[in-house]
Design goal:
Blueprint: H1 7-12, E1 30-34, E2 41-45, E3 51-55, E4 64-69, E5 75-81, E6 91-95, E7 98-102, E8 106-110, E9 115-118, E10 126-132, E11 135-140, E12 143-147, E13 153-158, E14 164-174, E15 180-188, E16 199-200, E17 206-207, E18 213-214, E19 218-225, E20 231-236, E21 248-255, E22 261-269, E23 272-280, E24 287-292, E25 297-307, E26 313-321, E27 328-332, E28 335-339, E29 346-352, E30 360-364, E31 372-375, E32 381-385, E33 393-398, H2 401-409
Antiparallel strand pairs: 1-33, 2-3, 3-4, 4-5, 6-7, 7-8, 8-9, 10-11, 11-12, 12-13, 14-15, 15-19, 16-17, 17-18, 19-20, 21-22, 22-23, 23-24, 25-26, 26-29, 27-28, 29-30, 31-32, 32-33
């Protein structure tokens, strides 16, 4: 029987980190050890080619510290935000001269790490924030809040379709023609019932009017919203085709050069984490292809999809190889997972040639627990990995996937 690996177990397991110096020759990767970070951290690429790192100060239950790096990985500044009330994990979004932190709360900072405001209405609820130069979009449950840079709520949009009991926005992208692509997951109502017919207890369990328990399936969900706020189309995965735990969610989405939409979908199956790539027709939202990305493991997640230097879609995620403790490339139905010594966690990257859904060129380029990634406007990939107190974190920057491959092949 295969060993089941829970997300929590992977998150806290020890990972062996390679230590690098920050200096690197032109065109090479940048690696920067971060001994001051011994817990969860997140990273966001900045317009100047550098990155902002946010983390919780050591031995603190709340609080926030920033570390800003330039494009060469040199430290610009490091500062602690005193009195910051929210605890990690939090995520980060950057645009123009601002950085937004969201998760347990929502707060805005400038690029010097100065705290501009925090929002009480989003406390404990912000599931995704898209920061734009003229404001931000905040997903809270299945509601999209349009917020000014001063923190004022300008408009609220309930995005959930009629067949949803509840929902969670996990990604928002703006298209070139100012439409919004909104992805996440929804918990489906039973057929023939309205939301008012369902009772929810304090633990989140749902019950039908006759008192019987209702196990609401969570399905992957995407909608295209026009500039006037109307839904152009809605996609949701088929609850009869998802796995044992009846759970799927969209982690990220990307509009490719053909106008189609690529989805990074996460599924669950009795402790397994399953990664899927799906393609939707950009005009209709119809599903045109799906592919499971196993990476030769029982645990795989695709976190981000983005455009590389050549315009091809690329992705980054993580996997927990359950392969023998020997360095080798293991084929799995045309895919490849790279294992260096049987470590539980590794970051993986890939490119999607043409319109293919089967990724190629998967590599492990640094062994990290719970890697976080961000892609800059120049296409460079920044990553940070935290190891939950076992080893210091490190930040890594790659100008392209080719640089990653060159380093691994050495």
């Amino acid at each position: 029987m295969k060993k089941r690996v829970t997300f929590f177990g992977v998150l806290i397991c020890a990972a062996t980190l390679r230590v690098f110096c920050a200096a690197a020759p032109a065109g090479a990767a940048i690696h920067k050890a971060l001994p001051q970070i011994d817990d969860y951290a997140t990273i966001c690429a900045l317009p100047d080619g550098g990155a902002m790192i946010a983390y919780m100060p050591a031995k603190a239950e709340t609080g926030l510290a920033f570390l800003r790096l330039d494009a060469d990985g040199n430290t610009v500044f490091e500062k602690t935000v005193k009195g910051f009330p929210f605890a990690f994990p939090m995520e980060m979004s950057a645009s123009g001269n601002h950085v937004a932190m969201y998760g347990e709360g929502l707060a805005l900072f400038d690029l010097d790490g100065n705290h501009l405001w925090e929002s009480p209405w989003a406390q404990g609820r912000a599931t995704y924030v898209l920061l734009r130069e003229n404001g931000l979009l905040a997903g809270i449950g299945a509601t999209l809040y349009h917020v000014s840079l001063d923190g004022d709520v300008l408009r609220e949009q309930d995005i959930a379709p009629e067949n949803a009991y509840s929902g969670r926005i996990t990604c928002v992208k703006q298209t070139n023609d100012n439409h919004l692509l909104i992805g996440g997951r929804i918990r489906l109502l039973p057929q023939g019932y309205k939301k008012r017919d369902i009772t929810e207890d304090d633990d989140g369990y749902l019950y039908l009017p006759d008192g019987s328990f209702y196990d609401a399936p969570s399905v992957a969900w995407v909608t295209m919203v026009s500039p006037d706020g109307s839904a152009q189309w809605v996609y949701s995965s088929d609850p009869d085709e998802i796995y044992v735990e009846s759970f799927e969610s969209v982690n990220d989405l990307h509009v490719d050069t053909n106008g189609d939409i690529l989805l990074a979908v996460e599924g669950r199956d009795e402790g397994y984490y399953l990664a899927f790539l799906r393609r939707l027709d950009g005009n209709t939202g119809m599903l045109t292809g799906s592919h499971r990305c196993a990476f030769g493991t029982d645990f795989s997640v695709i976190d981000r999809i983005f455009a590389g230097h050549d315009g091809a879609a690329q992705l980054v995620g993580m996997a927990a190889p359950n392969m023998p403790n020997s360095a080798k490339i293991v084929p799995d139905g045309g895919e490849y997972a790279y294992d260096r010594g049987g470590a539980w966690d590794c970051a993986v990257v890939a490119s999607l040639p043409g319109l293919a859904l089967a990724p190629t060129g998967f590599v492990e380029f640094v062994t990290l627990a719970y890697p976080r990634a961000s892609v800059g406007a120049d296409g460079a990939l920044w990553m940070i990995g935290s190891t939950a107190g076992h080893e210091p974190a490190q930040a890594v920057k790659y100008e392209s996937i080719n640089v990653i491959k060159q380093e691994i092949d050495k």
